Amino acid sequence: MDNSRVTLVDHPMVQHKLSILRDKATSCKQFRELVRELALFEGYEATRDLPLADVDVETPICTARCKQVSGKKLAVVPILRAGLGMVDGVLDLIPAARVGHLGMYRNEETHEPVPYYDKMPEDIANRTVLVVDPMLATGGSIISAVTYLRSRGVTGEIKLMVLVAAPEGIEAYELVFDQAENFDHSLLEGSLITHRTVSLGQHTRVFQLRRADFETYDSLVFLNLASRGVTLQSPLHGRKIRVAYPDFDVLLLWTVPGAGYICIEPWRNAPDYTDADGDIRHKPGMIALRPGQERSLRHTLTIE
Q: What is the rounded distance in angstroms from the CA atom of residue 252 to the CA atom of residue 269?
């Protein structure tokens, strides 16, 4: 796991309060108080690298050279509704910060988080944004929130504050295709393709990588994608890998359960169907070349 952009706040008092927070015997009143206190503790770390400027302050004795926060102003954006509990703790630390609100729900057809409520400060694009949500699970909502804020013009730093995080959420990646796609995975029987498909997302450019899909289907085979390029990216880490395959018609995705990688394999054609007649000339995607003919197929990988 790459933790280069992850800060674990392991202060003894944070660990103590977190243990009480997670105790099933903790009352609702105490739970809310602890969320606020933990958000304040975490806020110290989240703002540790804010730029400072020298200022002269008139004290009762003399003029003193001090430090004050400078640079971009801050905005706190909770993901509704759970994130609201952390807002007051952050505002205790940064009272001048503006607050935005972002509500999201899961689309049962595309399996993607969809914004249903958006109320942001008018100058959100010019602010450093702290996104707050108590739980980072698979990372889908957080990725969508960061992508949504970027679409609203936020070009500066976006930081995520959570109280509990799963490893899958920290390492969450997504595939962004060139065009909106219907992700219909073609089911396999052994090494052969059937005519049966399973929908893993409809009318979207973004395909969320979920361990459960690979545990269920081993590998994912997409036969009818219009896109000829895809970007593997993590909005949380800022890393991107672009795979372009203009001369390939089939895309295969696979990994090994528990592994820290994903294989993106463009194929010129797919394996035989279960009802294939065995004649290679009838195999979809085959290219017939006469003696002396040549054919080049392009496939590029760009790491950003």
A: 11
